[in-house]
Amino acid sequence: MADSLHIDPRPRVELRGISKHFGEGETRVNALADIDLTVRAGEMIGLRGPSGSGKSTLLNVVGCVSEPSAGWMRLDGDVVYDSHWLRHDLRRLRLMKIGFIFQTHNLLPFLNATENIAEAMELAGTPWRQARARADGLLDYLEVGHRRYAYPGEMSGGEAQRVAIARALANGPRIILADEPTAPLDSVRAHVVMDLLARIAKDHEAAVLVVTHDESIFQRFDRLISLRDGRLVATEEIKRPGNVSAQAALPTL
Ligand code: ADP
Ligand code: MG
């Protein structure tokens, strides 16, 4: 586990010249244009921008769901795309290195909390008994251990979201991607989710990228990145004690 003075300085996400277009000719849309971005272990990045500015497309490219049209990307040291169109095993990368958190929880209704998480581990090759034990540990970590036998239909919204976050952590991902995770929540619950994500970033030395419109949580990030028409137009370092982005710039002792 990392404390704030011993953050692993290695980049988790490196993007260079990433572009992505949809369609051709008259209907061509440049969803991402020449994005350079590095995100380090333990760092929490907020992605903001008007609707259609490319936020979800960027998350999908980093999440190995959508292939870029050009550019170079490395995740946790592994080259995913390079100029020679090398393509890593994307399914395996998605499963092992990336945790997705959606606005709605995406849990399977016919599996209980433990089974929903264990299933993600079984897909990655973990034996079921071991997966269940680890799933219960993650539910305890997210303070919903007492709901391990509950089915999604029996959970409150907050409980389902914690179980979904536990599921995103199932295979020990290095990168956590969340598309407007606080959108359906009131301000108190939005801050609880941000507390959880901050704790995960530090404890798991993960890079956390969060798409958000919610101004009330902007100050909770280490860096706030603005997209417009597919371009990265501004980066704001959030100044506060324990800011990981600022520490990453310091020389290692
Ligand atoms: P945001 O998440 O910031 O609202 P998106 O990344 O969803 O923006 O979209 C960026 C642009 O790419 C928009 O113009 C959108 O219409 C277009 N786009 C996104 N996905 C597709 C797709 N699958 N096919 C065609 N156009 C798309
Ligand atoms: Mg979007």
Quick description:
The chain contains seven helices and ten strands. By secondary structure, the chain is an alpha/beta fold. Bound molecules: adenosine-5'-diphosphate (ADP) and magnesium ion.
Features:
253 residues, four-stranded antiparallel beta sheet, 10 strands, binds adenosine-5'-diphosphate, six-stranded mixed beta sheet, Rossmann fold, binds magnesium ion, alpha/beta, globular, 30% helix
SSE blueprint:
Blueprint: E1 11-22, E2 29-40, E3 44-48, H1 55-62, E4 70-75, E5 78-81, H2 90-97, E6 98-101, H3 113-123, H4 128-141, H5 157-168, E7 175-179, H6 187-203, E8 207-211, E9 223-228, E10 231-237, H7 244-248
Parallel strand pairs: 3-8, 3-9, 6-7, 7-8
Antiparallel strand pairs: 1-2, 1-4, 4-5, 9-10
Helix pairs in contact: 3-4, 3-5, 4-5
Bound molecules: adenosine-5'-diphosphate and magnesium ion.
Low-confidence stretches: none
* CATH top level label: Alpha Beta
Overall average residue pLDDT:
88
Tally of strands: 10
CATH superfamily: P-loop containing nucleotide triphosphate hydrolases
Reported by name, the CATH topology is: Rossmann fold
H and E order: EEEHEEHEHHHEHEEEH
Structural class: alpha/beta
Q: With helices defined by DSSP (H or I, 4 residues minimum), what is the helix count?
A: 7
**Approximate helicity band:** 25-40%
Radius of gyration from the CA trace? 18 Å
Give the percentage of residues in beta strands. 25-35%
For the largest beta-sheet, the strand count, sense and barrel status come to: 6 strands, mixed
Give the termini separation.
19 Å
- Major sheet: order of its strands? 6-7-8-3-9-10
Task: Tell me which CATH architecture applies here.
Answer: 3-Layer(aba) Sandwich
